[in-house]
Design brief:
Blueprint (H helix, E strand, L loop, with lengths): L2 H4 L2 H7 L8 H8 L5 H14 L18 E5 L2 E5 L1 H14 L4 H8 L5 H10 L1 H10 L6 E5 L12 E2 L3 E5 L5 E9 L3 E6 L10 E5 L1 H4 L10 E10 L4 E7 L6 H18 L4 H16 L6 E8 L2 E9 L4 H6 L15 H9 L6 E11 L2 E8 H6 L1 H11 L6 E9 L17 H6 L5 H7 L2 E9 L3 H8 L26 E4 L11 E2 L3 E6 L8 E9 L3 E6 L10 E5 L1 H4 L10 E9 L4 E6 L7 H12 L5 E2 L9 H10 L5 E8 L2 E8 L6 H7 L6 E3 L1 H4 E2 L2 E2 L2 H8 L7 E9 L6 H4 E5 L6 H14 L1 E11 L5 H14 L1 H12 L1 E9 L1 H7 L4 H6 L21
Parallel strand pairs: 3-27, 12-17
Antiparallel strand pairs: 1-2, 3-28, 4-6, 5-6, 5-8, 6-7, 7-10, 8-9, 9-10, 11-12, 11-16, 13-14, 13-15, 15-16, 18-20, 18-25, 19-20, 19-22, 20-21, 21-24, 22-23, 23-24, 26-27, 26-34, 29-30, 31-32, 31-33, 33-34
Length: 842
């Protein structure tokens, strides 16, 4: 309904039941007698439009606050929540059938995110005045970096004793120890004397001299390695100097700490920090959707060498596998593309790669073009994007590159070797054999699939000429020149299978076991197999639930055997992932029915040399953990962790190894040093965004992360987050015209930023990797261990934020120059709406 007619909303509602009645004109004249004839005519035309029959399907999933379900009306299936169903039925009674008016009313219910956002804009002035007196709800949390906890060579004991410190000028200063170790001290001292790093101090332990036999003439030399200053005092971190050996004092200190550490308690702050840090990593690594690809440099040539897979990036591996199940991800990483990225400034080493594939004669042909390559071929840009986006195999990948060092592959525990043999073994650096395998690695490329329906629809609207499609062969990857082989390793995690799984793709037919579903067969293909289970991908969505019994048939495998009948083998669903089309199944075996188990056992034994196993058993022990450590030290996007805080879901921590990116500048706004602010995910000009709340209440553990795209208007000249940041999810806009208007307004007033938000439910942490440190804390402070465990289990959500601003601007036809200008903070220019010709401008 247009704004001109909004003021006559009540009259239109009153006349809806009469629109198809003979006396409509008479009733209209009576109800709207006070209006001019022209206005009555407009109302009549609007009612005629609303009364036209409609055949459009309504899908409100992700667009309303309620939980949507299937709703069938006259043979059409809609996805509506309770509010929408009530409105649908009410409006249908008014019009007598499903009409345009019904469609629009259902799309504009009060709990629709777009409607809520529009109302917020209309009442922005009054809302802002109310906010001035209301306290702001904090959405900040600490920024951490994986592996940044201190690792100690020896135990520290909390112990306070009086000491006397002598400076190089022989000035005497009284102080008190905080903790003590064989080779170091932390002391508390007044603020009168100004110490400097590397200053030499000689210390006499006056508080110990009366009880123990110590040298009262010659003190022990230390060096200042750290200073923490506050208003009332200073805390010095001191390190032993051994230029004047004191073996008697060393032996005394070792005996003293060993004999009293249970009484005075060892200092465990670094261990507590390490457990927190590692737990966040345990939650993050199985759930982040990107794939780290490790790049090696040999004789000046760059090539991908390894890739690390988890349950959430497996679709990427599946996509880049050809008909022989060979991973061809290397096509995306030519030497030229990698060299171009490496030559960029470190904070700008990223690009977008647009991909599709073509199947001919049962062979897969891959095509890809980076953003820069398309800018260099302006005449082909529109053809490539328009044609590729119309194909089912269309993908958009963000590729980011960062440097790495081999030293980052080692991540010891926070404990000294002396604690136990297990700790000593865990603290050992990588073996020479492992280092030799990794020695040429220099960079990590992170690949993230950022394809979505909104972007795809936009690109597919580009007009193309079929006679130009043949020119796209310049972006094809020749099959006779396959890319370098990439070894794939999986993140080691507690929920890995007990059996080795092998890659095998073959046709399957799934039948739901039950009378109500008789005759319901869904075709699909297996992805991997083991003796007692397998994973399959179906061509249609499976609407059943976990633990549902099903029957599987293997028509292609049946041709290989006459010994076993591979029809209707019993399985049970253990997990459902993806969009409801990826199933993890367990064979149901007993003394009467074990065909599936016996067949796959024999198949694997007879074809072990031909079947490719996932690398659960590493050819070089420790390589998977080393690659995992390398990525953990180089997290390129922003990971975030959500805790359950009463009935709310609040930020608990954020992680990133980057420092100067556009995204981090946004998240740092109105946040204390060392923290980031997730205000853009929670609120937009005072209107709450309940994406996190809704998603975590409705998604299950081990499901694929939910992805949504967020538009942000950022004006860093405003001091508070609520005035500097205006955000809206792309599916809350009515159409692309509204989205483009938002982008132009954002650039005109500051900076536009687009973010892909991924959010998943956490599983349980891998306690095996934390066990040594947990046991250590439990030995000396069981209450701290219990308290820590409760905190760790309180983390319920994990997510990832990926900056996709440049791709969104390209999608909406902004030129290369406009995209570059928007990277400045703040953007000091105003960009008007562009046309399709901008896409072709270099």
């Amino acid at each position: 309904m247009s704004q001109d007619l909004e003021q006559y909303h009540d009259i239109i509602e009153q006349l809806k039941p009469m629109i198809n009645e003979p006396e409509f004109n008479q009733v209209l004249s009576q109800v709207a007698a006070h209006l001019p004839r022209q206005k009555r005519f407009l109302i009549k035309m609007e009612l005629k439009r609303l009364a036209r029959p409609c055949i459009r399907l309504i899908d409100l999933r992700g667009q309303v606050t309620g939980e949507c379900r299937e709703y069938e009306h006259e043979g059409r299936v809609h996805y509506l929540d309770d509010t929408a169903i009530e409105e649908f039925e009410r409006q249908t009674r008014l019009f007598g059938q499903y009409t345009i008016g019904v469609y629009e009313a259902v799309k504009n219910t009060e709990n629709n995110y777009r409607v809520m956002h529009k109302k917020q804009q209309q009442t922005q002035d009054s809302a802002e005045s109310d906010q001035e007196s209301a306290p702001e709800k904090p959405h900040t949390a600490a920024l951490i970096q994986f592996g940044s906890y201190p690792s100690r060579r020896e135990e520290r004991m909390n112990y306070a004793v009086t000491i006397e410190m002598f400076t190089e000028l022989n000035k005497s200063i009284q102080a008190t120890t905080i903790d003590i170790s064989v080779s170091g001290l932390k002391v508390k001292v007044g603020k009168d004397h100004m110490f400097k790093p590397q200053e030499r101090l000689v210390i006499q332990f006056r508080g110990l001299e009366g009880e123990y036999t110590l040298d009262k003439k010659n003190g022990i030399p230390y060096s200042v390695v750290g200073i923490d200053r506050s208003r009332k005092e200073q805390r010095l971190h001191l390190q032993r100097l051994y230029d004047q050996p004191a073996p008697g004092f060393d032996a005394f200190l070792e005996r003293f700490i060993h004999g009293n550490k249970r009484r005075y308690k060892v200092n465990m702050e670094n261990t507590l920090e390490a457990i927190h840090n590692k737990t966040y990593e345990q939650y993050f690594t199985p759930n982040f959707p990107s794939a780290p690809v490790y790049i090696e440099t040999v004789k000046g040539q760059y090539r991908p060498r390894f890739v690390l897979a988890n349950d959430c990036n497996r679709d990427l591996m599946h996509y880049w596998s050809d008909e022989q199940f060979e991973l061809r991800l290397g096509y995306m990483f030519s030497h030229e593309r990698l060299a171009r990225l490496i030559e960029m400034p470190p904070e700008q080493r990223e690009t977008f790669v647009f991909v599709f594939n073509h199947i001919k004669n049962e062979r897969v042909y891959f095509y890809s073009a980076s953003r820069e390559e398309l800018f260099e071929e302006p005449q082909l840009m529109q053809v490539f994007l328009g044609y590729a986006s119309r194909k089912a195999s269309w993908r958009v990948y963000k590729v980011q590159l960062c440097d790495m060092t081999l030293q980052q592959a080692h991540m010891p525990t926070s404990l000294p070797d002396a604690v136990s043999d297990t700790v000593k073994r865990q603290n050992q650096p990588p073996t020479p054999r492992l280092l030799a395998r990794l020695k040429n690695l220099t960079h990590i490329a992170l690949v993230t699939d950022v394809t979505d329906d909104v972007g795809t629809d936009n690109y597919s609207a580009l007009p193309i000429r079929r006679d130009e499609v043949s020119r796209l062969k310049v972006f094809g990857h020749p099959r006779n020149r396959p890319p370098a082989s990439i070894d794939m390793f999986r993140f080691k995690y507690h929920n890995q299978r007990k059996e080795t799984r092998y890659q095998l793709r073959t046709k399957v037919i799934l039948t739901v076991d039950g009378e109500e579903s008789m005759g319901l067969d869904i075709e699909g293909s297996s992805e991997d197999i083991s003796v007692r289970g397998l994973k399959i991908e179906l061509h249609k969505t499976f609407h059943g639930s976990e633990n549902t019994p099903v029957l599987l048939s293997f028509p292609n495998l049946q041709s290989l055997t006459q010994k076993y009948n591979l029809q209707d083998l019993p399985y049970r669903i253990r997990n459902i992932t993806g969009e409801g089309n990826v199933l993890h199944l367990q064979a149901v075996s007993d003394e009467h029915n074990s065909t599936a188990q016996r067949f796959f056992d024999e198949l694997i034994r007879n074809n072990r040399s031909r079947l490719k196993a996932y690398k659960e058993e590493e050819d070089v022990p420790g390589i998977g953990a080393a690659l995992r450590n390398l990525y953990a030290r180089n997290v390129q996007n922003v990971g975030f962790f959500i805790k359950k805080d009463g009935v709310n879901f609040s930020p608990d921590a954020l992680v990133s190894s980057q420092r100067k990116t556009r995204l981090l500048r946004l998240l740092s706004h109105d946040a204390e040093p060392g923290q980031l602010n997730l205000h853009c995910l929670y609120s937009s000009n005072g209107i709450a965004l309940d994406f996190i709340q809704y998603t975590l209440k409705n998604i299950k553990t081990h499901k694929m992360p939910v992805m949504r795209e967020l538009f942000v208007a950022f004006d860093p000249r405003q001091s508070s987050a609520k005035s500097a940041i205006r955000s809206c999810f792309t599916d809350q806009f009515h159409d692309d015209e509204e989205r483009l208007e938002f982008i132009n307004q954002a650039i005109g007033s500051g900076q536009f930023i687009a973010i892909k938000v991924f959010l998943a439910r956490t599983g349980r942490p891998d306690m095996e990797r934390l066990q040594s440190e947990l046991n250590y804390i439990g030995t000396y402070a069981i209450h701290r261990a219990k308290e820590l465990e409760e905190q760790l289990w309180g983390i319920v959500g994990v997510g990832d934020l990926v900056d996709v601003t440049d791709e969104v601007l390209l999608r909406y036809r902004f030129s290369r120059q406009h995209i570059q200008a928007n990277r400045q903070t703040p953007a000091a220019h105003s960009v008007e709406s562009t046309h399709i010709e901008e896409l072709l401008r270099v």
